[in-house]
Amino acid sequence: MESCFFTTISSSSSSSSPFSIFSIQGSSSNVGRKFSKSCMHPQLLSCQLPKPFLQLNGRPKYRLNQRRSAYLSSATYKETISAEKQGWDLGRFFKTLYFFNGPPSPAKIVEFIIEKLSGSSPEESEKKMGTSDYVLVVGATGGVGRRVVSNFRKKGLPVKALVRNEGKARKMLGPDIELIVGDITKESTLVAQYFKGVKKVINAASVIIGPKEGDTPDRAKYSQGVKFFEPEIKGDSPEMVEYIGMKNLINAVRESVGLRTGKLLFGFEDQLSKELDWGALDDVVMGGVSESTFQIDRTGGEGGKPTGLFKGIVSTANNGGFTSIRTKNFSSPVDLSAYDGFELRLKGDGCRYKLIVRTSTDWDTVGYTASFDTIGGQWQSIRLPFSSLRPVFRARTVSDALPFNPSNVVSFQLMFSKFEYDGKLNPTFVEGPFELPLSTIKAYIKDPITPRFVHVSSAGVTRPDRPGIDLSKQPPAVRLNKELDFVLTFKLKGEDLIRESGIPYTIVRPCALTEEPAGADLVFDQGDNITGKISREEIALICIAALESPYACDKTFEVKSVVPFSEPFTVDPENPPPEKDYNIYFQTLKDGITGKESLEQSAIAV
C-alpha cells in the first residue's frame, strides 16, 4: 500500500521561515530529501513512502471510517480498527500544518524545494555551540578570591572572574584572565548573557573593613589578621554588599548553575505552573488516520491537582501507526546545561512512549530521542539522562550527529508509536484508545549532588543578638557589629538568601583571616561558637574542594587552624605539609546547623 508524503512549512517561531519537509521517524529512506514523480496528490507535491511504516508527529480532529470519535476511552470506543485503506482527512492535515507553521507562502515553498534538491542534509543545520563550563569567582581581587583564581589556573581549569575594576584585575590576575566586569551592588551590571557557561560560583566578595587610622595601599594592616586596629567600613555599606549584592548575584547566576529540585519545563508542581503550546502531530501527515490531542485536566492529577493529558486513538490503517504531540518552538532556546536529564511525572498505562527533544528550530531535523516504559495505573517518575538521548532522523540513528546540546533546547515531542528505531518494533504497541496523564516535565541534577555555589561568610554572624553571650570574649566584629553598620547581621541575611535560593550550596565561615600559609591542622565546627585564625590560602583550597564534594552540599560550618593567635605558623619550603583530603572534614558535617537555633529558641521563649 502506498502513502504520499507532503511538503510543509518549517517550524520556526518566525512566520517568514522557509518551508521544510516533515521529519519522519520510521524509515531509513531519503524521503523528504528528494522528490519523486511516482506519486502525486492534488495540489501537493509528494513522494512515495516505502514500507516499513514511517514514524512522525500532528494536530487534532479525527476521522476513522468517516465516523467521529468523542472522547476516547475503551468503554466508549467499540469500532474495530483495521489496516485497510481508509478516508484521509485532508482538512486535519492542513490544520496541523497551520498550527505549527502559520499560513503557507508559495515563494518559500519554491525556495525550500531548490534548497532540498541541492542536497543539503538536515543535520548540517545543527550548529555546534560552546560547551566550556566555568567556575565564576566573585571578589576575585580580594585576599581569598585571587588565591582561588590562582589555584584554578595552576590546575588548568576554566575560570572567570567577576570584578569591578578591569585594569586592577588584569594587573593582579594576569592579562589573559577571562573577566566579567560588573558590580554585585548594581543589578543592571549583571547581564544574564555574561554568565552563560558559568556552572559553579565561589563568592569571596565582602564589605571592605579597614583601620580608622588608614592602611597601606596593599591593605597590609587589615590583611595580617592578628594585631587589632580600630575598624571602620570603607566604601559600600554591609547592607549593599552582603545582602542586596547577594540577592543580585543569586538572581544573575540562578539559571546557569541550576536548582537542587530541578527546573520545571512543563506542568504543575506545588505553587508553580508552566504551560506549553502543544499540538497534535499524528500520522495524518502521511495519510494515516490516527488522532491525538492534548488538554489540561484541572482535577485529574495526583491528589486532584491539575495535569496534562495526552490521549487519542492509534491505528495502523493506511500504513499509519503513531500519534504524538509536539510543542511549538519556544520563543527563545532553553539552557539546561546545569542539569543532567529530563524527569517526567506521569500515570502510566503499561505502554512504551518516546520523548523527542530538538535543539534546532528547523522542522526537518534530528530529534534527540529516548524511549521509556510505563507501569499501568500508577503515577511514576521517569528519569531520562541527557546521555541516553539518541540522535534520530526518520527513525534511523544518526551515528555522526553532534551530541545532544542541553544549552539550546527549542521544542519537545511526546510520541506513542508502533515503531522504535532502526527497524525495531515497539513491543507494547496496541491499536486503539490510549491515555497518558503527564503532570510535569523537569530538568534534574543527578545524585550525588555537589555544591554549585560556595560562599565565604564569617564566623560570628549569629552572635551579636545571641542571649547570654560574653561579648568581651568575642572577636571585634561581634563586639562592634552595630558600630560597623551591622556587618554580621547583613552577612547572616545574605547566608539566608543562599539557603532559601534552591541552589546547592556550601557556606564557609572562617575565623580571623591571616596571610600565613596553608598547611596547619584544622578544626571544623558547626553552631557558630569557635574563635581563632586561619589562612586565606587554606580557605581558598577549602572552597575549591567543596565544589566537588557531596558531603559539603547544603552545609554551613566554621573553620580555624589549631595554631593559637600568639604563635605564627610557617612552612618549610623544603618539607611542605602533605595536601589535605578535605572530604575527611566535610564528612563530619551535619544538615541544618547554622547557629541560628539559639536565636530561634530565645525568640520562642519570649
Automatic annotation (TrEMBL):
Recorded superkingdom: Eukaryota
Gene3D superfamilies: NAD(P)-binding Rossmann-like Domain
UniProt cross-references to SUPFAM superfamilies, sorted A to Z: Galactose-binding domain-like, NAD(P)-binding Rossmann-fold domains
Domain NADH:ubiquinone oxidoreductase intermediate-associated protein: from-to ranges: 273-436
InterPro entries named among the record's database cross-references: Galactose-bd-like_sf, NAD(P)-bd_dom, NAD(P)-bd_dom_sf, NADH-UbQ_OxRdtase-assoc_prot30
NAD(P)-binding domain segment(s): 139-254, 451-550
Protein name in the entry: NADH:ubiquinone oxidoreductase intermediate-associated protein 30 domain-containing protein
The species this protein was found in: Gossypium tomentosum
